[in-house]
Amino acid sequence: MKNAVQNPDLARFVEAGTLYLSAPEAAELVRRQGVAACIEAIAAHIRADFLRWADFDKTARVAAHSKDGVIELMPVADDHRYSFKYVNGHPGNTRFGMSTVMAFGVLADVDTGAPLFLSELTLTTALRTAAMSALAAKTLARPDSRVMALIGNGAQSEFQALAFQHLVGITSLRVYDVDPAASAKLVANLQGSGLQITVCQSTAQAVRGADIVTTVTADKAMALILTPEMIQPGMHLNAVGGDCPGKTELHGDILDAAKVFVEYEPQSRVEGEIQHKDADFAVTELWQVLRGERAGRDSAQQVTVFDSVGFALEDFSALRFMMDSALRLGMGERIALIPQLANPKNLFGSLNASAPAAGARRTVRLAA
């Protein structure tokens, strides 16, 4: 077993406890570094981890579905670190003044099980989803792609727009949402971004003339956001919203005519756009393209689809970035998530009020 001296993160845990990054501090961390810079860095972390795909113990997420939404646990690990994300998806939450997606996650030491880092992942999930979308498009879309249609202008839309602007080279954005207020919010938030934004009156209008189409809708239904007559040769489709059983965005005929790429096939077969396709429907996992083991786009006229459902390895990458950034910037706080015991074999003794040595660690601000 490696010791705390050899593992600085474990040494910090032994000395002061789990590093905790709250939602307000995560937002401040992103503000200090810039949204685009954070997305670009997370994309680089994802790419690096996808390139060592075989190093990870992978599994599809564990989901608890209800009529109103889903709650999921997403675990993954290599020989050194284990991570999981708790995340929900409840489209009706906005009527309670709550986010549709809420998440937190942990990065732990494999050798000891010590929870090194506990972080909000709601904001971070939006960043990593955008980073994953842009990484896939940079790999699969035509290099000359400059116009993107963005269908669904909710909480994740601005992150998608900025990711495609800075990582892919998109300059023009054609947006549509069934709720005009959502599109107005997006336009206001992206003022000064340099993107040329056109608010459209329908999906068909938004898609017309686009090189890339990103769908990020929230309705938990087998929807047909995109239909075959909307698709033009050479398009790249980034299907983000269809991320659980019974929820899709693309007409099945679009998939039949396209080359389809996924993150982790066993999960995508259950949750993605391909959930209603036969088991032998051909797909390519993106890591294979990144490693040069499989081809991406075959021609400028080919339609490519990234059937994105969100995979735990992306959260592992995002947690690595957030922890490293927090340590570098001196952000977060140390908390007593796990009891510090004078005698690790005497947990009951921690209940003795006269034994302060068995109490919890102090909460301390993290030194840079």
TL;DR of this structure?
The protein has 368 residues and is α/β, with parallel strands linked by helices. It is 32% helix and 23% strand. Helix 6 (180-189) links the parallel strand 9 and strand 10 (196-199).
Q: What profile does the largest beta sheet have?
A: 9 strands, mixed
Radius of gyration: 22 Å
Number of helices: 11
Average predicted confidence as pLDDT? 93
Tell me the number of strands: 19
- Terminal CA distance: 27 Å
- Beta-strand content: 15-25%
Describe this structure in words.
The chain has 368 residues and is of the alpha/beta class. 32% of the residues lie in helices and 23% in strands. It has helices spanning 8-16, 23-33, 35-50, 122-140, 157-168, 180-189, 203-207, 252-256, 265-271, 286-290, 312-329, and strands at residues 18-21, 57-58, 62-65, 70-77, 81-89, 103-109, 115-120, 147-151, 172-176, 196-199, 212-215, 222-226, 236-239, 248-250, 259-262, 284-285, 304-307, 333-335, 364-365. Strands 1, 2, 3, 4, 5, 6, 7, 18 and 19 form a 9-stranded mixed beta sheet that branches. The chain starts with 7 loop residues before the first helix and ends with a strand. The model is unreliable at 357-364 (pLDDT under 50).
Short key terms for the protein model shown above:
single chain; 11 helices; 8-stranded parallel β-sheet; 368 residues; alpha/beta; 23% strand
